[in-house]
Specification:
heterodimer, A: MetI-like fold, elongated, B: mainly alpha, MetI-like fold
Chain lengths: 305, 271
């Protein structure tokens, strides 16, 4: 357990460092810098002014030196300013992260709950299994942004029950994004819950429980589900990245503040410092979530440790 | 298998028929016709027109060409890279295997879309790719998607290759003095046909979804060229005026991805 934790933490640090280096390099190689944009915006700026500004912001340094200075600052918690929002990056980051975690948490609960329910249905009533499988195939193929648009058209435009997006309206503004994100991740849970529950129900201790006269509900929830929890945690760990990708889509379609929308807005507004730092935060959170799911899995099933 | 191949065949036929459909209907799918904006479905415009009066059916067919081509190209590139890396890792083993698989784990653990959004926004001319030409967007997207798509293929191929390399026929071939290159090419690779086919089918579906998401976000295929994703981006701004315009491109993506997944499913069940 300790060994796993240590190797994985080292891996997370390495991946984050490599990712930041590669992304910084690619962004730095792009033609044009903020000073050139300032020149385009203000024709009175002389070339001496531009050179002075470049030196002031360290833009005259070689790329490697700039990366080291930037990475050192980020490690010390100096995230810099967002050019797009004219705010410190840190002030934008944490509220956005809170918004995304709220969306992700609710969607994960809904997807896992519905998925396990559908999986249980398929495992208990084999006649319904093809139906559940068909639904999973369908859910896997639906583009999340399209589903979000259809939900907006139905519930916001036609019926007028829920807001089409934004953050105002409390829980009402959360319903459609959470539903979209949950549906996009439902398929994996339903398929694997069906398989895991079918395998768990075939084990001898289930026959013992039934022979003792335990009801079907008790057999399912007390005896089969704990055994099926381990493969489901594997899916949760594997799908953490997909879930975060889905959050970016849900946040942009529903104009909901969060990390995905922050990254998207930063990219569209050419604010690459903000985009890069937000990407690194999202990557670290994703990898930590995967690690937590893996640890929980080993805790539940000591054979894996 | 039949259902999946049938779906994909229909979509491919639809994509191939784009010029023929344009001649039949007598419109140019890229030329604005401002007197015919938001036209309802009619004989002249079977699916109606968009906000610039362009025929939706024709744009859907041209979008099919772009979306299917990008999906297929990205998936084939990803399969090529993934097969090579997976086979190499399984055959060589040791530190090379460890390095390649940790690299794959690292890529797999990252949230793909936020990363793709940033990479797609970069200027492609930095790494020597053409910029601003019609085909350049497609090439850029295919390469970008392949750079992430190989991971799944490599893991599947490696797992299957490991079990094949431990079989008796491999030892027999080695004992006969077959060279390692020939061993991999003639004896191991044919045995990997099924996992490679499954991985390719899944990769095509994944690439079509990712391409449409990036185009939807305005970072993929740029208008006036049509792709299913950028048609949906237009439709989103117009959900109040023309809600139907949002229906068809999404349905097309759904059917294409469903077709790929059905094919992958059927191969993995051995049917």
């Amino acid at each position: 357990m300790i060994r796993l934790l240590a190797t994985r933490l080292v891996q997370i640090v390495l991946v984050t460092a490599l990712l930041s280096f590669a992304a910084f390099l690619l962004i730095g190689l792009m033609p044009g810098d903020p000073i050139e944009m300032a020149i385009a915006g203000d024709p009175r700026l002389s070339s001496e002014d531009a050179a002075r500004l470049r030196a002031l912001h360290g833009l005259d340094q070689p790329l490697m030196a700039r990366y080291l200075a930037w990475a050192g600052g980020v490690l010390e918690g100096r995230f810099g300013h967002s050019r797009l929002f004219a705010l410190p990056v840190a002030a934008l980051l944490w509220p956005a992260l809170a918004g995304t975690l709220e969306l992700l948490g609710l969607a994960l609960l809904l997807a896992a709950g519905l998925g396990v329910g559908l999986g249980a249905l398929a495992a208990l009533r084999p006649a319904l299994a093809p139906l559940v499988q068909g639904l999973a195939l369908f859910a896997q193929a639906v583009p999340a942004f399209w589903l979000g648009m259809l939900l907006i058209i139905l519930f916001a435009v036609h019926l007028g029950w829920l807001p089409a997006g934004g953050a105002e309206g409390g829980w009402r503004a959360l319903v459609l994004p959470v539903a979209t994100l949950a549906f996009a991740n439902l398929a994996a849970y339903a398929r694997h819950a069906a398989a895991a529950l079918a395998a768990a129900l075939a084990e001898p201790h289930i026959r013992t429980a039934r022979a003792r006269g335990a009801g079907e509900g008790r057999v399912l929830f007390r005896h089969a589900l704990p055994n099926a929890a381990v493969p489901l945690l594997t899916i949760a760990a594997l799908d953490a990245g997909a879930l975060v990708s889905g959050a970016l889509i849900a946040e942009t379609v529903f104009a909901r503040p969060g990390m995905g929308k922050l990254i998207y807005d930063a990219v569209m507004g050419n604010d690459f410092n903000l985009a890069l730092i937000a990407l690194l935060v999202v990557a670290v959170v994703t990898m930590l979530a995967t690690l937590m799911a893996d640890l929980a899995q080993r805790w539940l099933d000591p054979r894996l440790a | 298998m039949r259902a999946g191949l049938g779906l994909l065949g229909l979509l491919a036929a639809f994509a191939a028929s784009a010029p023929w459909l344009a001649a039949l209907l007598g419109h140019d799918p890229f030329a604005p016709d401002l007197f015919n904006r938001f036209a309802p479905p009619s004989a002249a415009h079977p699916l109606g027109t968009d906000e610039l009066g362009r025929d939706l059916l024709l744009r859907l067919a041209h979008g099919a060409r772009v979306s299917l081509a990008v999906g297929l190209a990205a998936a084939l590139a990803a399969t090529g890279i993934g097969t090579l890396i997976g086979l190499l890792a399984a055959w060589r083993g040791g530190w090379l295997d460890a390095v390649l698989m940790r690299l794959a784990d690292g890529l797999l653990a990252l949230p793909a879309l936020p990363l793709l959004v940033i990479l797609a926004a970069l200027d492609p001319s930095v790494v020597g790719l053409p910029r601003g030409e019609p085909g350049a967007d497609m090439l850029r997207l295919a390469l970008l998607l392949a750079a992430f798509g190989w991971v799944g293929v490599a893991r599947l191929v490696r797992a299957s290759a490991l079990s094949l390399l431990a079989r008796d026929f491999v030892r027999a071939a080695r004992a006969l003095g077959v060279s390692e290159a020939r061993l991999l090419w003639r004896h191991v690779l044919p045995g990997l046909a099924a996992p490679i086919a499954i991985a390719t089918a899944l990769a095509v579906g994944g690439a079509i979804l990712a391409e449409s998401a990036l185009s939807f976000l305005g970072l993929g295929i740029a208008p006036p060229a049509a792709s299913w994703g950028n048609m949906l981006a237009n439709a989103q701004e117009l959900v109040f005026q023309a809600p139907l315009a949002a229906l068809w491109p999404g349905l097309a993506i759904l059917l294409a991805v469903l077709g790929c997944n059905l094919v992958a499913d059927a191969i993995s069940r051995g049917r």
